[in-house]
Please model this.
Amino acid sequence: MKDVLIIIGTRPEAIKMAPVIRRMSESSILRPRVCSTGQHREMLAQAFAAFDIAPEFELRLMTRGQSLAALSGRLFNTMDALLEERRPWCVLVQGDTTSVMIAALCAFYRHIPVGHVEAGLRSGNLQQPFPEELNRRVATLATRFHFAPTPTAADNLRREGVPESRIHITGNTIVDALLYMREGIRDAPPPLPPAMEALLRKGLSYVLVTVHRRELGAEGLQHICNALRTLARRHPDLFFVYPVHLNPRIREHVRAELGNIANILLIPPLGYKEFLRAMDAALFIMSDSGGVQEEAPSLNKQVLVLREVTERPEAVEAGFCRLVGAQEERILQAAEELLAQERSGIPSRSTPFGDGHAAARITTVLERAAQASPEEYP
Ligand code: UDP
Model:
């Protein structure tokens, strides 16, 4: 058996790696060994719990208010020590956080092949998302197995000179995660906070909101809060359900701005199953999240994307997502248009993010490589 060290730091990484861990656990060739770098401790624990995953290694690296450089320094030292001690055959990372970039570099320095899940996403703008666009470009340079979720992502990698033989189009593992959970949710809906259950019981409509991006800044957050306040006033029968990210900068601002409005429900982050149920029952979604843009098509939901650029153009092209940025007037206009459209019904379409078998494809590529010599890796 060859060890694959799987690095996970945030909630979306846990959700998107979970299907790979589950599938690889059944392999007779590879052994997944999960390492948590613990960027968002509580939200990460919720995501691990949803999939029954317990990390084997916990690196406690986060301290409140630390700079990206300080975090990187700590990651370099700790990750390198772990690689020295464990000597995995391969390091598998997902997405574009700072821990992904540093883990990929540490593995590269030790000549350990890196597999990158969700490779090739590009916004084309190093400032948005910040610092993720830089992180994923650097991770690409250190990666041996590029698992591109879509043909568009694969094209981005080709344009940067990644050899064809190293690119594998797999679909996005978030579709695997969502399909795995969805059956259970429809059979046995997980309980939501009481105020939400009351909305559902009364058949009241709500818009689901999530916001967390670093590059948004205080001004962007203020614009979003203003827009939500205006929408709530204009539509007293419509509710806005907002699971607030635990980042203190976001939480304190949002509580102060939106804390006392009757039709805005501020709730703590939801577990994955609960969040999927909340998405499924929402009228539409307003979010700056990457994962939500990928999940919404599988649930046939519309998303107003509170960002200026997206690295997921597939969801925009397929008609599920609309880029509205973080300007109050644009948000208001787009929300009003969507409300009018929702009333007349939006036709259903299929997701551009895969068929739910991404984890199996990733595992197969790595199994073949594990049985070959490095020169013969597929
Ligand atoms: N999510 C969750 N609970 C919540 C909000 C989001 O489980 O209260 C999930 C969501 O379904 C998606 C992921 O978290 O799979 C997105 O994470 P986030 O928006 O934090 O990060 P991003 O995707 O932008 O990197």
Q: What stands out?
A: The chain is about 50% helix and 15% strand. The pocket of uridine-5'-diphosphate is lined by residues 11-12, 15, 210, 212, 243, 269-270, 272, 275, 289-292, 295 (CB under 6 Å). The two ends are 19 Å apart (CA to CA). The chain has two domains: 2-171+357-371, 193-344.
